[in-house]
# Entry
Amino acid sequence: MHMVNPELLRRGVRVVLIGCGGSGAAVASGLPFLHQAMVVAGHPGGLHVTVMDGDIISPTNCIRQPFCSAEIGLAKAVVMVSRLNLFWGLNWTAVAEHLTSQTDLSNFDIVIGCVDTRAARQLIESKVRGWRSRVAYYVDLGNSADCGQFVLGQPLNGRNRRSADRLRTAAELLPEIIEAPLDEDGAPSCSALEAIERQEPFVNQVLAYHALALLARLFRHGRIDHHGAFVSVRENRVIPITINRALWQRMRRRGRRLVSAAAG
# Structure
């Protein structure tokens, strides 16, 4: 069982969402519902969200992502945040830039990563760790054509000290997801048909809403008994990642074997 960091129940929660593509846009669209639920339940500030993405909307983005042809050429982060602010009466922030080695994430309470390369995950992991960082939770979402996983972890840093019960991050449980040499060709789809064929519809939304439901449970009930899950759209199946040190060790050993096999 994990209890929510009590500091996050006493003031507004600073969230940064990195990536506003398939999963990122789905998460962004759901975060206002979480914010509203927290405020109605008596939370003193709810969420203040910053959406960071340097990508521009392309024609193929209008197939699987919540953008339209009139928005082609505009910044994803700006379009998404403007839409949410207008509809919900929020004052959230858009950063139309890619995450770089110069980006400072240390003062956010929650980092949500919706990126599609191992190199980007590795960069986020490096930013949320270390004694300078005050990040309380890091949520990583990743998916393939018809399945994916999400993990809510407590990065080892100035706020989260070394402890047997500290929630392990996605990179700690699945070390293969930050091995940049394992990245496949991530070139953009060249046609609308290819965009559909490369990924099943709704896999991003299913994954995003499972992750949001976990965050909602953490803030609504103050505790959780699992901190992620593997989700298969093809099999209509969800396998939770329980808070269990033996399970964490098995997952990490398996990931290391995959990395070693790929390197060999």
